[in-house]
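#help-structures
NK: newbie question, is this the right format to request a structure? protein is Signal transduction histidine kinase internal region domain-containing protein
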Amino acid sequence: MNARFSYRQIAGIASVIIALLVNLPLIRLANRSQLAIFPGLPDAVFLLSRLVFHVAFTFFFIELNRYALLHKRYQSRLNLLGWYGVNFLLFLITTALFVAIMLLWYPERPILLLVTTYFRTFFVWGTALLVANFLTVLHQNRLIQAENEWLKQESLQAQLDGLRAQLNPHFLFNSLNTLSSLIREGSANTQPYLVKLSQVLRYSLQVQNRELVPFSEEMQFTNAYSFLLTMRFGNNLQIVNDLPPQASWLIPPMSLQMLIENAVKHNIVSGAKPLRINLTIDPLRNSIRVSNGNQPKPEPADGTGTGLPNLENRFRLLTGKPIEIVRSESEFSVHLPIISAI
């Protein structure tokens, strides 16, 4: 709840206050009874017994209902109305036990005085239910606020990680090296390479604050990024993109680029072991499938290791569905849920 009181401590404090308020008339009466000569008036022991009972009774029902309402434990067998019916039955049983004990302990007490316990305890029970519901709503609101704050932090972290990937010094260094080689060789691919590099950098800056982009825009960016990689690795890298370029879908920006980058970063790409990356549709899972040969490098690649977790968090937030990762001895694949634009 806060730095001082937990929800259980608040329940305890509320129980004491409610018990004192409901027994306040008897407290005043007990003070007067010390000078009174009339039998049947409550004494301090009887008052203390009922006060302790009401504190324990209130605390029990607050905590029972707070736990049940928060975790919805009753839903497997009862609806909310049925759960309150169980509460009422528990109220009748516990109060009857207390009255029976008091009658055995104080056989000379008028039954009317003990039966009034039912009416006072009914008020206590109703107040306990209200407090339990209030604490449950308060707890749920705090959980929602905490989750929203966590999601904001995750979104910010994803943006920061994306920005690092977008302006990754290694990527820029390798791209500029490739461009330099093309210029030096007088290659006809120099101008197309420069255009694609400009397209990749411009797109990465444009989508920084966007949660979703049209799939067609993402495809143009992915194709440009794939072109840069294939120019760099030559025949050692093959990226086969069989995704529909004009599909009416949405997608978190740079999702496909991150998966392609991960595949290149963590796998051997060489003449002896060329790497093939496939981008396809999986109709059974209704997902986009990005797969590559499983040929990991002998030593782990440098990186924060947060790319896939961040991507999964983004999809959970936007679709409520996780991404699916499938590993085998020969292949590694990631399935991204398709987000329809309609």
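mod (FA): yep, format's fine, and the tokens are attached above. Confidence is low (pLDDT under 50) at residues 34-42.
NK: thank you!
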